[in-house]
Amino acid sequence: MTGETLRVARTHFPVSALGPGRRFGVWVQGCPLACKGCMSLDTWDPGGGLEVPVDRLAAQWRQALDQGADGLTISGGEPLAQPGPLAVFLEEVHRLRAGTTGEPDILLFTGHTPEELDAHQQLAASYADVLVTGRYEAGRPTRLVWRGSANQQMVLRSELGRRRYAPYLDWEPEQPPLQVRADEHGVWIVGVPRLGTLSRLDGDLRRRGLPAEAVTWRPCPSEHGKRRRSADSHDNGETS
Ligand code: SF4
């Protein structure tokens, strides 16, 4: 029992659009970086989401491993805004993956550059096999997979990370992988869409009569963002 908690926006399994294979995804709640054009506005509020015991997240990771998960993706929000509990969770993740026959990897998205990290953040980041680093800059589009803007770097930190992710460093897919999901809180997406994708999706949702304020990527002057709560979800892994 760790006794630690991590403030989380949502978890999901399987994630197939953020990292290779079928993955357990954790979206950390709270981001102070305020990138213009961020599609995860619902994760900015540091008081949103839910405090989730690290032990519960570790149990979910164990369950995902039992179902053959290829890795863990941590996104947000800004995961390194909670470096202490994140490091405790990732230590558990390492311990549990050591008992598997596969090679599940750890992919961590952060809006910080490596140079910005303090000692606590460096420790948490050190558990990742791969980092995707840097703010989202809407004016610098890219076609590279799993990066939102051209300034963002994919950093391969471990032997596993280098072996598994080297083919993706320069990969520009015809269509970036995306999963579109809906729950009682609204519509949310998994993946890194290209410029223009969200407005097209927004138009599709309007045509289908879905409430426009119930999308996670829209600035929310109403109480919508405050009403959101952490959600754990499982599905069949269809990719839209
Ligand atoms: S793009 Fe990422 S780092 Fe930037 S504001 Fe959004 S959640 Fe924070």
Automatic annotation (TrEMBL):
Q: Which GO terms describe its molecular function?
A: 4 iron, 4 sulfur cluster binding; metal ion binding; ribonucleoside-diphosphate reductase activity, thioredoxin disulfide as acceptor
Domain of life according to the entry: Bacteria
Positions of the UniProt region annotated as Disordered: 216-240
Q: Where is the composition biased (Basic and acidic residues)?
A: 230-240
Q: Which cofactor does it need?
A: [4Fe-4S] cluster
> What keywords does the record list, in alphabetical order?
4Fe-4S, Iron, Iron-sulfur, Metal-binding, S-adenosyl-L-methionine
Q: Which Pfam families match?
A: Fer4_12
What is the name listed in the Swiss-Prot or TrEMBL entry for this protein? Anaerobic ribonucleoside-triphosphate reductase activating protein
Please name the source species: Paractinoplanes brasiliensis
